[in-house]
């Protein structure tokens, strides 16, 4: 007899436990940061100097990407639109709540409290984006209970990785190509490796799209495309660094979009465009410029990176994804390895090249702000000279360009290694019984977890199974 997939007890119980824990932790450890604390305001405080007005536009833009962009993008399957959008909504909401606590402990914890401000929310959104990217590898093959458990486990692993890389390895990764895209891709691949389903290797009857679902998915792509410059520039230094990040992201996205259309037609035997290419490959440039997005790489380099990332992503969808499924037991449902893994590698290598080529001739004294770890150490006479040119410049580690490049390489291997270990562990947890995992024949089917409307097109699709346990109160 098949295990019950009813959510009637499982989902409310899990949510109740999570909410009680989060509420208790918020009550005990979360307070306001200086910009949100009324006690620290006085008649000399200018409200317009509040960090809200600097950071909230980026927070709002990334919110649109997470809840609308990702949500619509994941609704590309004809019989799985409810699940793609709604499970994204559910998982994202919890992941941000949880990340505020976990990331706050590593980044904003002092005097026994996590000091909450808009910048915390932006950091939590990035952790949420990691979870949603990984979600793409197991789309249609997991229950909402499993996805919440996945977010519960992935956020701490990501936060620890981020903390070690930024605090101890110390790298440049403004757009998150290493810490967000590579981590998310390999965590998701490790999870789906453990959750391997042999019967899905040759496709599934319900793994199909429709005219309407493809249009909805392209809308998600357009939201992600439009707001990606905010994603890449949100945590860069304000001013010229952030300005370059916006320019490079737009140029990279633009070149990858043109390339995607050309390659889609060229690789199609009938010379037609493929909607899956438009939905995914057009975004590759946003990832490929990420590691060097705030550097003086030149607009031409950003354009070239968009073309390179798009080409790698397109070829990955055509040839690498089927190979991974048949030979390595990795069923990457949404091709996250192509859009985030391959492009993340290209971006990381481009960042290393940009670091090796960086010089004061190109950057001026501001080089030691962008590459903070290359700034002279405390007590170095050169530091005093630079501080006269750039007031507030902090002492660095005195690294050479070659040393910083080696630390970047170390961060790549460390991030991928921890992501794979965390993903394997999470996958084994998700295989535990009583997490409402869908049976093979009911993957990619909204009818399993939703009350679907009367016009739900289930022609030729059997109804979801009703186990005796499903009828119990």
UniProtKB/TrEMBL annotation:
Residues 28-432 form the Ammonium transporter AmtB-like domain. Its main location: membrane. Gene3D superfamilies: Ammonium transporter AmtB like domains (1.10.3430.10). GO terms for biological process: ammonium homeostasis. Signal peptide: none annotated. The keyword Transport applies. InterPro entries: Ammonium/urea_transptr (IPR029020), NH4_transpt_AmtB-like_dom (IPR024041), RhesusRHD (IPR002229). It is a multi-pass membrane protein. GO terms for molecular function: ammonium channel activity. The chain crosses the membrane at residues 12-32, 58-79, 86-106, 118-140, 147-166, 178-196, 208-228, 248-268, 280-297, 303-320, 341-359, 405-430. Keywords: Ammonia transport, Cell membrane, Glycoprotein, Membrane, Transmembrane, Transmembrane helix, Transport. It is found in: Cell membrane. The keyword Glycosyltransferase does not apply. Functions as an ammonia transporter. May play a role in the elimination of ammonia in the gill. Belongs to the ammonium transporter (TC 2.A.49) family. Rh subfamily. PANTHER family: AMMONIUM TRANSPORTER (PTHR11730), AMMONIUM TRANSPORTER AMTB-LIKE DOMAIN-CONTAINING PROTEIN (PTHR11730:SF48). This is Ammonium transporter AmtB-like domain-containing protein. The lineage of its organism: Eukaryota, Metazoa, Chordata, Craniata, Vertebrata.
């Amino acid at each position: 007899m098949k295990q019950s997939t009813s959510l009637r007890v499982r989902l409310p119980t899990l949510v109740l436990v999570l909410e009680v824990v989060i509420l208790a932790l918020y009550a005990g450890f979360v307070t306001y940061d200086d910009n949100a604390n009324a006690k620290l305001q006085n008649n000399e405080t200018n409200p317009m100097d509040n960090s809200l007005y600097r950071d909230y536009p980026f927070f709002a833009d990334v919110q649109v990407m997470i809840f609308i962009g990702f949500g619509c993008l994941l609704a590309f399957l004809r019989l799985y639109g409810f699940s793609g959008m709604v499970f994204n909504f559910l998982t994202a909401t919890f992941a941000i709540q949880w990340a505020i606590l976990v990331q706050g402990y590593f980044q904003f914890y002092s005097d026994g409290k996590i000091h909450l401000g808009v910048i915390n929310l932006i950091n939590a959104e990035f952790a949420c984006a990691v979870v949603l990217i990984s979600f793409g590898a197991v789309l249609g093959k997991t229950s909402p209970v499993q996805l919440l458990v996945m977010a519960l486990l992935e956020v701490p692993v990501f936060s620890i990785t981020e903390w070690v890389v930024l605090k101890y390895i110390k790298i440049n990764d403004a757009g998150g190509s290493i810490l967000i895209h590579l981590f998310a891709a390999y965590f998701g691949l490790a999870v789906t490796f453990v959750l391997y389903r042999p019967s899905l290797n040759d496709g599934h009857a319900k793994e199909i799209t429709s005219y309407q679902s493809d249009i909805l998915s392209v809308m998600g792509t357009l939201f992600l495309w439009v707001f990606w410059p905010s994603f890449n520039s949100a945590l860069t230094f304000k001013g010229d660094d952030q300005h370059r990040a916006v320019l490079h992201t737009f140029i990279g996205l633009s070149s990858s979009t043109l390339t995607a259309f050309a390659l889609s037609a060229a690789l199609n035997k009938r010379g037609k465009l493929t909607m899956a290419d438009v939905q995914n490959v057009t975004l590759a440039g946003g990832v490929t410029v990420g590691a060097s997005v705030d550097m003086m790489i030149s607009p031409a380099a950003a354009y070239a990176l968009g073309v390179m990332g798009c080409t790698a992503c397109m070829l990955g969808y055509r040839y690498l994804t089927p190979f991974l499924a048949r030979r390595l037991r990795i069923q990457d449902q949404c091709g996250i390895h192509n859009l985030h893994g391959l492009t993340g590698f290209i971006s990381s290598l481009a960042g290393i090249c940009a670091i090796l080529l960086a010089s004061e001739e190109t950057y001026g004294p501001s080089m030691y702000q962008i590459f903070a770890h290359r700034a002279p150490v405390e007590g170095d006479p050169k530091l005093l000279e630079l501080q006269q040119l750039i007031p507030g410049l902090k002492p660095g580690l005195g690294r050479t360009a070659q040393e910083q490049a080696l630390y970047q390489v170390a961060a790549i291997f460390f991030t991928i290694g921890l992501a794979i270990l965390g993903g394997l562990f999470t996958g084994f947890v998700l295989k535990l019984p009583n997490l409402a995992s869908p049976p093979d024949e009911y993957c990619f089917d909204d009818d399993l977890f939703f009350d679907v409307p009367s016009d739900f097109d289930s022609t030729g699709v059997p109804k979801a199974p009703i186990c005796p346990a499903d009828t119990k109160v």
